[in-house]
Amino acid sequence: MVDQNVKDRIEQDIKGNDVVLYMKGTPVFPQCGFSAAVVQVLSTVGVKFKGVNILEDPGLRQGLKDYSNWPTFPQLYVKGELVGGCDIVREMYESGELQSLLADKGVATGANA
Ligand SMILES: N[C@@H](CCC(=O)N[C@@H](CS)C(=O)NCC(=O)O)C(=O)O
Ligand code: FES
């Protein structure tokens, strides 16, 4: 069960922003290597994203685990859907699947972002 306020906040974020990264720390100062790795991938791909620091909000930290049915951070959302964590994002980047997913969903990357 996810608290309604937490659920509203998550849905506002993931519906209002094409790409949202729930992470430990901020894009400028990640506080965990797994979060830093996804920030690095997103920067390399050149996609704009909203970073949300779950360390600042214990309710959101737990709420997201329940909402996403995913036990760890980072969590990457694209167009309202969970893509996955660090391992998945890195694999998808290396295979080119992440770039295709963003293109298919109409999310600008590189010079067009
Ligand atoms: N294999 C994971 C690594 C991420 C991970 O293990 N995260 C841990 C440590 S940062 C986590 O979020 N634990 C739950 C918590 O801290 O609330 C992935 O692919 O994203
Ligand atoms: S904070 Fe220790 S592994 Fe992420």
Q: Nearest-angstrom radius of gyration?
A: 13 Å
Number of helices: 5
**Which ligands accompany this protein?**
glutathione, FE2/S2 (inorganic) cluster
Q: State the helicity in percent bands.
A: 40-55%
* Average of the residue pLDDT scores: 97
Structural class: alpha+beta
Question: Can you tell me the overall shape?
Answer: globular
Strands of the widest sheet, in order across it, are 2-1-3-4
**Element pattern in H and E:** HEHEHEEHH
**Main beta sheet: strand number and arrangement?**
4 strands, mixed
User: Could you name the ranges where pLDDT drops below 50 across 5 or more consecutive residues?
Assistant: none
What's the number of extended β-strand segments?
4
Distance from first to last alpha carbon: 36 Å
Could you outline the blueprint of secondary structure elements for this entry?
Blueprint: H1 4-16, E1 19-23, H2 33-45, E2 50-53, H3 58-68, E3 75-78, E4 81-84, H4 86-95, H5 97-104
Parallel strand pairs: 1-2
Antiparallel strand pairs: 1-3, 3-4
Bound molecules: glutathione and FE2/S2 (inorganic) cluster (FES).
Residues 24, 32, 34, 61, 72-74, 85-87 line the site of glutathione.
Give a short summary of the structure.
The protein is α+β, with helices and mostly antiparallel strands.
How would you explain this protein's 3D organization?
The chain has helices at 4-16, 33-45, 58-68, 86-95, 97-104, and strands spanning 19-23, 50-53, 75-78, 81-84. The mean pLDDT is 97. It has a 4-stranded mixed beta sheet. The longest helix is centred in the N-terminal third of the chain and has 13 residues, at 4-16. The protein starts with a helix and ends in a 9-residue tail after the last helix. The protein contains 5 helices and 4 strands, in the order αβαβαββαα. With 113 residues, it is of the alpha+beta class. Helix 2 runs parallel beside helix 4. FE2/S2 (inorganic) cluster binds at residues 24, 32, 34. Glutathione (GSH) binds at residues 24, 32, 34, 61, 72-74, 85-87.
